């Protein structure tokens, strides 16, 4: 069995952003040479997320509005965590959107449904953060 590991780095110019990272993940899969197995992709920071969904701008806008209703950024003093930092909402948004995805690999390709794509969700941006890609298989 083979194993592959790579870190992808992101630094958004805005506090919140959704990025389709499927092409980078597919590049990792190609580099790995693995044809059958599993791919794990996870955010290595507690204010960012990796998740699977459709790459559709209306849905992305809906996410922004929905997440902001569930865990609004402001006022900052509504959160007990916001003493040293102002990112309690980002921690909550990450919990809602999830930490990682696992995708089956079949015939050297991500075994996706028709519209599935992998996204990096940033909820407290403007600094470098990393995503781990780990692939195991043959």
Question: What can you see in these coordinates?
Answer:
There is one protein chain. By secondary structure, this protein is an alpha+beta fold. It has one domain (2-64, 95-137): Jelly Rolls (Sandwich), CATH 2.60.120.460. Helix content is 25%, strand content 36%. The protein contains three helices and eight strands, in the order ββαββααββββ. The strands form two sheets. It has a five-stranded antiparallel β-sheet with strand order 1-8-3-5-6, covered by helices on one side. Strands 2-7-4 form a three-stranded antiparallel β-sheet. Strand 5 and strand 6 form a beta hairpin. The model has no long low-confidence stretch (mean pLDDT 97).
In short:
This protein is an alpha+beta fold.
How many structural domains does the protein architecture include? 1
CA radius of gyration? 16 Å
The residue fraction in helices comes out at 25-40%
H/E element order: EEHEEHHEEEE
**If classified by CATH, what would the architecture be?**
Sandwich
Report strand order across the widest sheet: 1-8-3-5-6
CATH superfamily heading: YjbQ-like
Report the end-to-end length measured between terminal Cα atoms: 5 Å
Largest sheet composition? 5 strands, antiparallel
Total number of strands: 8
Top keywords for this entry?
alpha+beta, 3 helices, five-stranded antiparallel beta sheet, 8 strands, Jelly Rolls, 138 residues, three-stranded antiparallel beta sheet, 25% helix
